[in-house]
Design goal:
35% of the residues lie in helices and 15% in strands. The chain is α+β, with helices and mostly antiparallel strands. Strands 5-4-6 form a three-stranded antiparallel beta sheet. Strands 1-2 form a two-stranded antiparallel sheet. Strands 3-7 form a two-stranded parallel sheet. Strand 1 and strand 2 form a beta hairpin.
Length: 212
C-alpha cells in the first residue's frame, strides 16, 4: 500500500481541502496511518511538485492542490466569463472585519467614515467570507461579524496570523489617523455567541461583474 499515492489521488479527487483526520479516515482501521506518516507523505508530495506548475498547499481547512499563481494569466483564457470584480468599498469592509473581528456594522462605518451598504454585507455573506457570530451587548444588540474558514481558504491562509499588514493589503495611507488600530488580538467587547448551524444554507453567488 502506497500511502503517498493514495493521498495524492484523494487530494486531486476531493471537492475541497482535506484535513489530516479526513485523510486518515480514507483508510480502514487496520491500515490507518498515524499523523506522522500522513504529514511525511504530504511533505514528500510537496517536494515532488516543487518544480511543477501545480503545488500542494495548506490552508485553514486542510491541504489541497492548486495551480501556481504565475500561470493564472494563461488559465484565465479557459473561461469565457470574466471574474467578478469587487469594489474598493467591499474590500475595505472585508479587511476591517478580518483585522478588527468581531466587528459590528457601526465599527466598520466608524473606521471607514461612511455608511456600509447592505449589499456589501450580503455579498460577503453569500461568498461565505463572513458570518454573524453573535451580538454586541449594547442597546440595539448589533450583529458581530467575523471571517470564516472559507475566507482563509480563498486567500490561501492557514490562520488569521498569516494576514499581511492592512496598509499593504489595501494600499491605504493610515498615517492620517494614528489612533486607528487594526492589529490582531485587540480587546473585543463581550459577546453572546449564537449556535452555529450544522448545515450551510444555500447561497446564491453574485452574477454581476462589478459589485458595489
Amino acid at each position: 500500500m502506497n500511502i503517498k499515492n493514495i493521498i495524492e489521488a484523494a487530494l486531486f479527487a476531493a471537492n475541497g481541502p482535506l484535513s489530516i483526520m479526513e485523510i486518515q479516515d480514507l483508510f480502514l482501521l487496520e491500515d490507518r496511518p498515524d499523523k506522522h506518516l500522513v504529514r511525511k507523505a504530504i511533505k514528500d508530495l510537496k517536494e515532488d511538485y516543487s518544480a511543477k506548475s501545480i503545488e500542494l498547499v495548506e490552508v485553514a481547512s486542510g491541504y489541497r492542490f492548486q495551480v501556481k499563481s504565475e500561470y493564472s494569466s494563461w488559465l484565465a483564457r479557459l473561461w469565457e466569463e470574466k471574474p467578478v470584480k469587487y469594489s474598493r468599498a467591499l474590500l475595505e469592509t472585508l479587511a476591517i472585519i478580518a483585522y478588527q473581528q468581531p466587528a459590528t456594522r457601526g465599527d466598520i462605518e466608524e473606521i471607514r467614515g461612511v455608511a456600509v451598504s447592505t449589499n456589501i454585507i450580503r455579498t460577503l455573506q453569500e461568498r461565505e467570507w463572513v458570518r454573524v457570530i453573535g451580538h454586541k451587548e449594547v442597546p440595539g444588540r448589533p450583529a458581530l461579524y467575523a471571517t470564516t474558514k472559507e475566507f482563509l481558504d480563498y486567500f490561501n491562509l492557514q490562520t488569521l496570523a498569516d494576514l499581511p499588514p492592512l496598509a499593504s493589503l489595501l494600499e491605504i495611507d493610515l498615517s492620517a489617523n494614528q489612533d486607528l488600530q487594526l492589529n490582531l488580538g485587540d480587546e473585543t467587547p463581550p459577546i453572546k455567541t449564537e449556535p452555529i448551524q450544522d448545515e450551510k444554507e444555500s447561497l446564491s453567488k453574485p452574477t454581476t461583474e462589478s459589485i458595489q
